[in-house]
Amino acid sequence: MSATQVIAEINNLPAKEQEEVFTFLAQKIITKRETKAKPALGKKLSFDEACEVVFRENRELLSLLAK
């Protein structure tokens, strides 16, 4: 099954089940990101640098939240 087919199936689910899928995917993304090295961790960053790190490291999750 392709990603397009999976997305179509998710779109056909009731809202509650779509929430469950979203929660599962969000947890999977967060867990995957936690295992990666955090080069900015422990460094003093300016606000703009910190925003760049947050948005870069959470692009997928933020895209899902925007939908």
Give the overall form. elongated
Count structural domains.
Answer: 1
Radius of gyration: 15 Å
Indicate the mean pLDDT: 80
Tally the helices: what do you get? 4
Query: Which runs of at least 5 residues are low in confidence (pLDDT < 50)?
Result: none
Helix content: over 70%
Biggest β-sheet: count, sense, barrel? Answer: none
Tell me the span between the first and last alpha carbons: 23 Å
Percent in strands: under 5%
Number of strands: 0
Determine the structural class based on helices, strands and strand pairing.
Answer: mainly alpha
Order of secondary-structure elements? HHHH
Provide tags for this entry.
67 residues, mainly alpha, 4 helices, elongated
Secondary structure layout:
Elements: H1 3-12, H2 15-34, H3 47-57, H4 59-66
In short:
The protein is mostly helical and 67 residues long. Helix content is 73%, strand content 0%.
Can you tell me about this structure?
The structure is a single chain. This protein is mainly α. It has one domain (3-66). It has helices at residues 3-12, 15-34, 47-57, 59-66. The radius of gyration is 15 Å and the shape is elongated. It starts with a helix and ends with a helix. The mean pLDDT is 80.
